[in-house]
Design brief:
Layout: E1 2-8, H1 13-24, E2 30-37, H2 43-50, E3 55-57, H3 66-79, E4 84-87, H4 96-101, E5 106-110, H5 125-134, E6 138-145, E7 155-162, H6 169-193, E8 197-200, E9 203-206
Parallel strand pairs: 1-2, 1-4, 2-3, 4-5
Antiparallel strand pairs: 5-6, 6-7, 8-9
Helix pairs in contact: 1-6, 5-6
This protein binds glycinamide ribonucleotide.
Glycinamide ribonucleotide (GAR) binds near residues 12, 13, 109, 111 and 127.
Length: about 210
């Protein structure tokens, strides 16, 4: 049984997609053992609470320095003894020591087709604003392992989504979530839970 901790910052629709996929059997061999947010008002925490999943807020505001926050975040994660950490809209830079402790055991969902529209400053609606400003006709989402860079780790799954004329960034965000994120994030977890993924020299292949 893969023990998964989901890290969130906001609405938690990706968390909900994961919980629903566990319930429906689309994700097997997996238990969601905890949810961690950096933001106490994140609706994602309520979603976890409603499911009876242990949930906790670790806010940088509660600590005197970033180093103390980073240590508290790692300590909290460690307590769950998870096999996999899933960043589902977690808008905190993952500390280097956590990346080392959980190498190839942290995955992230990003709302574009990496390597486009990713890296520092590209998160949430800003990604879709940039997509619309550039006028690309296809965007999408990517699930990848997390390494020391921003959105640079091995790519697990991607799914393309059409940009429509006249889209607002909110409309585009919603379409990317519905058609791509809520599908490929649960799918990636299921692949990992069933030992279907290998990573060789930074490249993911499916067994
Ligand atoms: C999602 O669109 C996710 O891809 C994005 O934040 C949103 C969270 O929504 N993540 C990033 O931009 C990370 N760089 P949710 O809280 O409803 O799942």
């Amino acid at each position: 049984m893969l023990k998964v901790v989901v890290l969130v910052s906001g609405g938690g629709t990706n968390l909900q997609a994961i919980l629903d996929a566990v319930d429906s059997g689309a994700i097997t061999n997996t238990e969601i053992v905890g949810v961690i947010s950096n933001n106490k008002n994140a609706y994602a925490l309520q979603r976890a609470e409603e499911k009876g999943i242990p949930n906790v807020c670790v806010s940088p505001k509660a600590f005197a320095s970033r180093a103390e926050f980073n240590q508290a975040l790692l300590d909290t994660v460690d307590q769950f003894q998870a096999d996999l950490l899933v960043l589902a809209g977690f808008l905190v830079v993952i500390p280097e020591m956590m990346i080392e402790a959980y190498r190839n055991r942290i995955i992230n969902i990003h709302p574009s087709l990496i390597p486009s529209f990713c890296g520092k400053g590209f998160y949430g609606l800003k990604v879709h604003d940039a997509v619309l400003a550039r006028g690309v006709k296809v965007t999408g989402a990517t699930v990848h392992f997390v390494d020391a860079g921003t959105d640079t780790g091995p790519i697990i799954l991607q799914k393309a989504v059409k940009v429509k004329d006249g889209d607002t960034s909110k409309e585009l965000q919603r379409r990317v979530m519905e058609k791509a994120e809520w599908k490929i994030l649960p799918e990636a977890i299921n692949l990992i839970a069933n030992d279907k993924i290998t990573v060789t020299d930074g490249i993911v292949s499916l067994k």
